[in-house]
Specification:
Number of strands: 6
CATH class of the domain at 132-381: Alpha Beta
Strand content: 5-15%
Bound molecules: NADP nicotinamide-adenine-dinucleotide phosphate
Shape: elongated
CATH superfamily of the domain at 132-381: NAD(P)-binding Rossmann-like Domain
Order of helices and strands: HHHHEHEHEHEHEHEHH
Number of helices: 11
Strand order of the largest sheet: 3-2-1-4-5-6
CATH topology of the domain at 132-381: Rossmann fold
Length: about 375
């Protein structure tokens, strides 16, 4: 009997011990959770403080930049423009980050890798597709197109593919002999191509006006304007209007041309109900320019001329032109879209002033270089 009581006592003691142990484990867990929550709150606070310090650092850096720009002679309007542009860039970076995140979640986006590999994007086309593939089956016979600098390179291929899809195309070129040769080449493979060659030297404002007069005298509508012509890295030279040659050709000439053709484009879009398109061929080289933007006061200064910065500046002007024109047309309710595009890399006559350097660059970036039919895809894509 005694031993039975002893056994019951032992069992009770064991049960008590187990219950105690369970309580201890539970308490330890609660304590650990409390510690974790405390640590997380501390970390949150530290992260917030870091964020605030970074925001403070950005604010101070901005204040310092503004001070320096004021000292450099920037007026309040220019400063306001600088601030607005900076805010715009930040917003774009944020959007790009968000797009990248979305991409990571399965939404397709064309990145640098797809540019190299040619992997098709959501549209089914990639950087290895050609303009002919993208426009297959499209009837463009109702669209009149002007392509500047269509006597060679990207412009020539653009004109060829538009003509192939039935569009009447005006080849606007400074060298009409080369342009006529280009026209002959296109018509040999496509006898029904509707092509006209008109003289246009974009480095001369007089020539731009003369081109528009001639175009207007043809009484044609205008749906699409491809501002493609360009020069790159040429030695310092002034145009006949006394403007640095790359800026005069790549931007000023196209700026005037677009303005003079705009009424026709607006009227065409209105009467046909077909959205008009303006495409400015820009370049990734627009990054290579003064951090203060376009230096209008120093454009023609031969002493500080840098051929690469001058090209970058002219290509930045192409983008800003497209952006502002697009905003104004939207505001006025005109049915015309304006885009600027970096077409990709292709060895063309554009490299004539920098052939050795471009060939050297191509050696290390060869995977990113394309053929003309592939490059033009990007321009066509934006149409
Ligand atoms: N190739 C690339 O890798 C690349 C990269 C980024 C951006 N881009 C841009 O793409 C566009 C086309 O370049 P591309 O590579 O096709 O070069 P391209 O073969 O040299 O073609 C340029 C065209 O512009 C014409 N042009 C030059 N100055 C002119 C002027 N004052 N008035 C009228 N036409 C003029 C040229 O005529 P001439 O034959 O008489 O010189 C030529 O027909 C350019 O805007 C360039 O900045 C090209």
């Amino acid at each position: 009997m005694k031993s039975k009581e002893a056994l019951t006592m032992k069992t009770l003691e064991t049960k008590l011990l187990i219950t105690e142990k369970k309580k201890e484990v539970k308490l330890a867990k609660v304590e650990a959770r409390r510690e974790d929550a405390k640590r997380k709150a501390e970390l949150d606070l530290r992260m917030l403080a870091l964020k605030q310090t970074k925001a403070m650092k950005d604010l101070l850096a901005e204040e310092r930049d503004i001070m320096m720009m004021r000292t450099d002679g920037m007026d309040e309007d220019q400063l306001a423009w600088w601030k607005e542009t900076k805010a715009d860039i930040m917003a774009r970076k944020k959007a790009a980050r968000e797009a990248r995140d979305a991409s990571a979640q399965g939404v397709e986006e064309m990145g640098i890798l797809s540019l190299i590999t040619g992997k098709p994007g959501a549209s089914g086309f990639g950087s290895a597709s050609t303009a002919e593939q993208v426009t297959a089956g499209i009837d463009a016979s109702a669209l009149t197109v002007v392509v500047t600098g269509a006597s060679s390179g990207i412009g020539l291929e653009t004109a060829r593919v538009f003509a192939l899809r039935g569009a009447p195309v005006i080849i606007a070129a400074r060298n009409t002999e080369a342009a006529s040769e280009a026209k002959k080449c296109i018509t040999e493979s496509n006898p029904t191509a509707r092509l006209d060659v008109l003289k246009l030297d974009l480095s001369s404002l007089k020539s731009v006006r003369a081109f528009v007069d001639q175009f207007n005298s043809m009484n044609l509508p205008l749906n699409i304007l491809i501002n493609n012509a360009g020069v790159m890295l040429c030695p310092f030279q002034l145009s006949e209007d006394n403007v640095e040659m790359q800026f005069a050709t790549n931007h000023l000439g196209h700026f005037l041309l677009t303005n003079l053709l705009l009424d026709n484009m607006k009227a065409t879009a209105k009467s046909t109900g077909i959205e008009g398109r303006i495409v400015n061929l820009s370049s990734i080289a627009h990054h290579h320019t003064s951090p203060k933007g376009i230096q209008f006061d120093e454009l023609n200064d031969k002493k500080i001329y840098n051929d690469k910065m001058a090209y970058g500046q002219s290509k930045l002007a192409n983008i800003l032109h497209a952006k502002e024109l697009s905003r104004r047309l939207r505001e006025e309710g005109d049915n015309i879209t304006v885009n600027s595009v970096h077409p990709g890399l292709i060895m063309t006559n554009l490299m004539r002033h920098s052939l050795a350097m471009m060939k050297a660059i191509r050696v290390v970036t060869y995977m990113m270089w394309k053929t003309a039919p592939q490059v033009i895809l990007r321009a066509v894509h934006w149409i």
